[in-house]
Amino acid sequence: MSPSSIQAVKQVVLPSGTLTIELHDEQVPLDTITEYAVRQNPRRGFLFVSKILGKHLPVKPSEALKHHCSLAKSLPLDAEGPVLFIGMAETATGLSASIFEEHCKLTGRKDALYLPSTRYRLGEHATLLFQETHSHATDHLIYPPQDPEKKALWDHARTLVLIDDEITTGKTLKALTHTLKAALPALQEVHLVCFTSWLDLPPAVLQEEFGLPVQIHALVKGRMDFTPNPEFAPPELPKVTGNGADKTPLIRKEYSRLGRLPDEHALPEHLQKKVAELPLQDRPILVLGTGEFAFEPLKFAAALENAGHQVVFHTTTRSPILPGEVIHSRLEFPDNYGDQIPNYLYNHHPAQYSRIMLCFETLPTSEDQTLADLLQAETVYF
């Protein structure tokens, strides 16, 4: 990247070290969509914390969806199909499903398939495995669909769209691309979609590294470096590996992990009724997703907002972040999938809200009510 294309340079000093960020292209100002924090992870001491993702910080559903739509519009409307969309667990499961849905609405295309990576085993289905080496939990699973219509789209996919909230080095997406390229010989091009991309490489180098032509679609593009603070003691990682058990008996309804078609799912009727009957509140409603289960709660939150309520949305997460900087508070509790892995909720202030709705894809358990009591929430089952 030539110096003339550098629009600005920003430094962020964290206890773990210093981020130096070169800004090359801002479709929106970086400071309006991103904050910073320290991971509880000795492999990577920094975290870009999105203000618009709805993962670690609450966001209005309309604000999140506005940016999802902007990214969906940036993809070519005439991409050669079938088009395979894949989102990265767990952080980008809501974002990626939303971009898939918005793009299919924009184009009207039906030859598109979405599925996310996941940390969970689901029955005896065949899987593709790849790793996110810097992550707190490295292994990702992808389930090639078995449904005949979805399998045909998967087998003949020509355009690949990979979605994450942020791209730093691109190593994870390169690993995934090579895994998919070996399984799907018809693939011809790759589109990387994210809020912020720091993967600053010429197109020819990207093509060589990914093995296919690559385009990057991001609200902010640039380059970053991290200089660790030698006096910072890297924190110990908590337990992040699940028990490997089949989670199928726990999940009430599987929405996406085995493949999702355009317009395949609508908000369940009992939740449509809840939206229609809920009186307007004097304070905002908080809708909380749980872990990988983000998109359906986001759509529920959006429906409440469209009905005239003040609403914000975010989710619990297995991503361990140290309090400080933008992370003002941290609650820790066991996951709701039976792995006994610590999960977290950040910046939770119950007194701000009239109601807190904690959303699950899993079957009810006594632990759910314990968590709801901790968060001062009511349980909502999809």
TrEMBL record:
It comes from Deinococcus roseus. Residues 35-223 form the Orotate phosphoribosyltransferase-like domain. Pfam families: PRTase_2 (PF15609), TRSP (PF12500). This is Phosphoribosyltransferase. InterPro entries: PRTase-like (IPR029057), PRTase_2 (IPR041688), PRTase_dom (IPR000836), TRSP_dom (IPR022537), UCP020967 (IPR011214). It comes from the Bacteria. Residues 269-369 form the TRSP domain.
